[in-house]
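Field reference: sequence -> structure
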Amino acid sequence: MIRTFLLALSLLASATWIQAQSQYPQSESGQTGNAASAQTTVQGCLQGSEGNYTLMADNGTTYQLQGDTSKFGEHVGHEVRITGSTMASSAGTPTSTQTAGTQQQPTLTVQELKHISKSCKSTSKQ
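Structure field:
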């Protein structure tokens, strides 16, 4: 009788644990906040210097670049195509190190860079 009770109790505990895991499949993803991540390819003008690079996309969006940017110096001012994971910035009030202009800037973690042209397309802001 005790064995049956312990077996039923362990099965109930296992079922509860499995149900909890299936409700929150990405709870251990390592992301903080409500930022979404997606694979994307963006083409635009590479700007910046020494580990602080941005990409001004052809549609006007500016991406902060992360990842292995060691070879980006030779492509500054060039048209490039970057493939990587995007993460939108969390909304909120800027910290002392943020400015209002960079608060909404999405981050692009670089996985691949392809050189397109030695000059950037001229972009006209309306």
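Note: Residues 37-90+104-117 form a domain with the OB fold (Dihydrolipoamide Acetyltransferase, E2P) fold (CATH 2.40.50.140).
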